[in-house]
Amino acid sequence: MITCKQVSNALSKEDYKDMPFVRRLFLRLHVSLCLFCGKFNKQVMESQHMCSCYKEREDTLAAHRPKMNELKKEELSQLLQSHIKSK
Amino acid sequence: MPIDEEPKVPITPPELWVESYGDYLYGFAMSRLRNAEAAADCVQDTFLAGIKALERFDGSRDIKFWLRGIMRNKIVDQIRKSIKENKVNIESEDETLIESFWFKYSGIATTNPDPWQFNPRKHYDNGEFWVVLEKCIAQVKHPAREAFVLRVLEEQTTEEVCKAMDISPNYLWVLLHRAREQLKTLLEANWTGKDAN
């Protein structure tokens, strides 16, 4: 059986979903039964799951993100032109 | 299959990068850096590095994602630089936590964390939820935010983040706990759709 410390260490190094099947099984079992670390580490796993779903959907959020200043864009275009020419 | 196969995706010429990808990359950098000047610098450095390395682009995916890949390294460099200028000092509350029995015994901050006021999983299909989550991530305080961005969003290893932030792995774990705690509180306060099923 694994210890609470091993569960926390594993979750600090790797997302639960990326762990090998057997480790996930032991971890899930420990977290479901443990009166000490169960509630805390369940929230860690929940948060990892939420963040990984967020990363998968990130590109759909592009329209809500701030846009680059038009003046800055103009300057940047000119800078790129000069680099392309000098290449 | 021919060896000199044509690229699968047409390559946008660098002259059109600012117009085509400027806003996309800037928005992405802002989601990590929260600083307009630093984000614009990252985009600029990315485009210049992209022009230099264009010959190495194999055309196997959209160039937008290739440029984003370059920019992710620039973002990590930028955060590293900002941390060097603004060193992370451990809060006494966090020091006490690391020295506490529970933390030493089990690596947890508390045996009884406040439960979620709503089940976030029920809202994953609602696009608006992710917009709100992104706004909440932006409000997480320094240095927990930097730890969260490097470790969770940019998927740097524990060792890499500890080195970049000049902190111990225990403190990184505590900072990630603080970031999670703040995100939960912020989401509970800002997500208005939580009563919907």
Strand residue content of chain B: under 5%
**How many distinct beta strands of chain B?**
0
Give the name of the CATH superfamily of the largest domain in chain B.
Winged helix-like DNA-binding domain superfamily/Winged helix DNA-binding domain
Mean pLDDT reading of chain A: 94
Uncertain runs of chain A are none
Instruction: Characterize the main sheet of chain A.
Output: none
Word description of this protein:
The complex is a heterodimer of chains A (about 90) and B (about 200). With about 90 residues, chain A is mainly alpha-helical. Chain A has one domain. Chain A is built from four helices and no strands. Chain A has helices spanning about 5-15, 20-35, 40-55, 70-85. The model of chain A has no long low-confidence stretch (mean pLDDT about 95). With about 200 residues, chain B is mainly alpha-helical. Chain B has two domains: about 15-85, Rna Polymerase Sigma Factor, Chain: A (Orthogonal Bundle); about 90-195, Orthogonal Bundle (Arc Repressor Mutant, subunit A). Chain B has helices spanning about 15-35, 35-55, 65-85, 90-100, 100-105, 125-140, 145-155, 160-165, 170-190. In chain B, helix 1 (about 15-35) crosses helix 2 and helix 4 crosses helix 9 (about 170-190). The radius of gyration of chain B is 20 Å and the shape is globular. The chains are: A mainly alpha (about 90), B mainly alpha (about 200). At the A-B interface, helix 1, helix 3 and helix 4 of A face helix 1, helix 2, helix 5, helix 6 and helix 9 of B.
